[in-house]
Design brief:
By secondary structure, this protein is an all-alpha fold. The chain is built from eight helices and no strands.
Amino acid sequence: MENRDTFLIDLRGEPLGAITEQSSAEEIFQNRILRPILVLQNELFIHVFMNYAVKQKKVFFSLTPEKKMAYIENVIQRDIKFRNSLKGIIIGLFTVEEYQEYIKNSSNINKRMMNMLIERLKSQVMILEQE
């Protein structure tokens, strides 16, 4: 187990974002664990979303950029199977200790996780248009 944990922490790299004495436990978790995982998995998230959009009759590709952003948000908020798949991509890179920390406050962490992912995909809408 120790080898896996060390490997995952090394793979993710340094925390992203400020961690101060005033940071809440959720902020620390977000900057130490979630942000590095989202950066590491970015390309995979783009391909997973593109595959989803293609399977949904390609309606995404005919939308205006503004409507694409709304589509991204709606899909991740409303399609529970898809959202759970995205969460799994993130949670699969937690160490056992991080997972134990996550389950103590999973509801709030899930909200942060999905909001960060939504913003990440929305900021890359031009890439999503080109694929």
